[in-house]
Amino acid sequence: xxxxxxxxxxxxxxxxxxxxxxxxxxxxxxxxxxxxxxxxxxxxxxxxxxxxxxxxxxxxxxxxxxxxxxxxxxxxxxxxxxxxxxxxxxxxxxxxxxxxxxxxxxxxxxxxxxxxxxxxxxxxxxxxxxxxxxxxxxxxxxxxxxxxxxxxxxxxxxxxxxxxxxxxxxxxxxxxxxxxxxxxxxxxxxxxxxxxxxxxxxxxxxxxxxxxxxxxxxxxxxxxxxxxxxxxxxxxxxxxxxxxxxxxxxxxxxxxxxxxxxxxxxxxxxxxxxxxxxxxxxxxxxxxxxxxxxxxxxxxxxxxxxxxxxxxxxxxxxxxxxxxxxxxxxxxxxxxxxxxxxxxx
Amino acid sequence: xxxxxxxxxxxxxxxxxxxxxxxxxxxxxxxxxxxxxxxxxxxxxxxxxxxxxxxxxxxxxxxxxxxxxxxxxxxxxxxxxxxxxxxxxxxxxxxxxxxxxxxxxxxxxxxxxxxxxxxxxxxxxxxxxxxxxxxxxxxxxxxxxxxxxxxxxxxxxxxxxxxxxxxxxxxxxxxxxxxxxxxxxxxxxxxxxxxxxxxxxxxxxxxxxxxxxxxxxxxxxxxxxxxxxxxxxxxxxxxxxxxxxxxxxxxxxxxxxxxxxxxxxxxxxxxxxxxxxxxxxxxxxxxxxxxxxxxxxxxxxxxxxxxxxxxxxxxxxxxxxxxxxxxxxxxxxxxxxxxxxxx
Lengths: 345, 343
What we know:
The complex is a heterodimer. Helix content of chain A is about 50%, strand content about 5%. Chain A has helices spanning about 5-20, 30-40, 50-70, 80-85, 115-140, 150-160, 175-195, 205-230, 235-255, 305-315; strands at about 105, 150, 275-280, 285-290, 320, 325. In chain A, strand 1 (about 105), helix 5 (about 115-140) and strand 2 (about 150) form a beta-alpha-beta unit. Chain A is globular. Chain A starts with a helix and ends in a 21-residue tail after the last strand. By secondary structure, chain B is mainly α. Chain B has one domain. In chain B, strands 1-2 form a two-stranded parallel sheet. Chains A and B meet through helix 2, helix 4, helix 5, helix 7 and helix 8 of A and helix 3, helix 4, helix 6 and helix 8 of B.
């Protein structure tokens, strides 16, 4: 399925690999990489906390609609019996900044196991509350819900990630494919809130963002733990996590626009569930799982700037060579995100 | 629960009553000042003198004390021994010079693990060890040494939580005795780690933010939440598999731990955590239409909880006493000018 997006993805992966050859391996040591990656963004514009929170709101629109559709078979602004019974907030789409769009694709997953079904419901409710929180906090500054593609977008990404049968992949088909779909989002949410935390100027906003960051990481831990239980050897969905993480790392590296790139294959900013070797105390090395998505040395979770995040959720739409493209279009956001004049899209 | 601190303080574990050490409002005010951007010096304040301002080094060292505890627990559970001695020493400029020891209690490699379970223990142990090393590296000469750590405190803690009535020996709570008990032991720490980093992050100075301390703290916060997500997902999933709360008592035990932590989270009523709650009890989903309760967050807006430094100390000291400078997991207190509970 050689769509425009997948061609774009292939180009980006190729470009990123070429970069790796010409650039040294820069250290991922937490303090420095976090700061430099953020400074790269901080130098560009006079944005406000509202711009950062609106960026988060676009991502929460995406996540919440995905989980509402999977758990209840409806979008966040239309209640049904399932969403009402679960106590999921019914969202009034009160945001007005930008162009409002519709949500396409998605359907209720025919769950067969209680753990996965109950996790889906819990996560839907929590992401709905995040949308509500941000809409309330932003008030008249809130962005409208943009057009969101939750159907063919997954096939585009699955194909680009080289997941077997990716061209027909649906996260709504089974408990297992739902987990893979959720996997696509959660670690990205962690890195996005992490990257944004240092940009916020109002202390109360920072406290709230840190709290949401924690929740996204709980979700990510939940998803990764469950996939690891279901496929501990990585033969199927566990293996897919590695493919998805590799794709995200490629797109993320491209989003750095050559500012502080690190060698992709030896220094990715994303890890799937493959096991790795560790040394404990004074002991020889032993085998470890990788529930946590963090750098291997310091075990500090990764942060991504807005261009990196945009490039992931648009499947490469935010970057053309070493130039940022705005608005970034593609995959989950076919018409781009919504943002204020100095915002991120 | 009213007799909680009495229960803990009269338990077999070593404990420390602090009488009359000024529970100074001044220290609380100092936190406020730092929160507004003051105190960017990297020189740690002398622990013997009341601190004038909380420095970024104080915040990182506070976190380091907690990581020493977590790493010790997980390393013992995974391997049967604790941190390498080289990971416990004092930085050259630290005013705390003595390296503490671990009172192991029942600490031992958890028996009967499957290969997959062993790999999980290895992961969390490695990651907490990495946090110790990372913070020590970031602090450099200012790094405090490992304080005394009492891993025999799980017994009295479980009695205070009303999980069991025996503090030691037969019938006591031993997190090193099986994978499920290990999960409950891990549960004691992880949500607290999340809230501690969440509460401490806003205290980092503007200079510290520029130096990348805030993003590092946020990154460690996320890792603690991954761990908490793992532990809570495992407890919930194993309870679902067992079929009922009575068939899997560990879920109930974890919730008793939450009750205890909530009771110990005292002082600082204007703390970032809202509506008086800092815990989300685990539930046992019984159908395809009931939600789980993996995430610990506000029921109103799904924002994770925060605890102040003072509140975290109450939890890890196992004491609601104001002016306590040690107890519980830290029999002689943490190595920090912030070691005394202030409210």
